[in-house]
Predict the structure of Transposase IS116/IS110/IS902 family protein.
Amino acid sequence: VLREKKAILKTIPGIGDIIANELLVLLPELGSLTRRKIASLAGLAPKANDSGQFSGYRCIGYGRCGIKPILFLAAMAARNSNSSLKSFYNQLISSGKKKMVALTALMRKIIVIANARIRDFNSGLFCA
């Protein structure tokens, strides 16, 4: 089953052998959570810093250790590849987002795509 999940993850632009292995080890919940929960677990969901009428910045400094560096490398590779993720990144840059903000959005998109593909694989596996 892990071999098939690894093959599915490798179809996502920016994810190779090493990153697929790391994601399967660091996120065994991949495919069983919602997109918001998996983004939060990966540390890519913004947390509000609000109190009363004060509205602070949203930061992503939470989540499981070790996942964000792996996703950062995947996002860098996807940004340089010729894929729909590259066009998503370029669209964010052209709309005025900073490069790191666009990379973080790309990281979140990669983990959400990975979660959805593993979820679809699991649902097909257990329906038989």
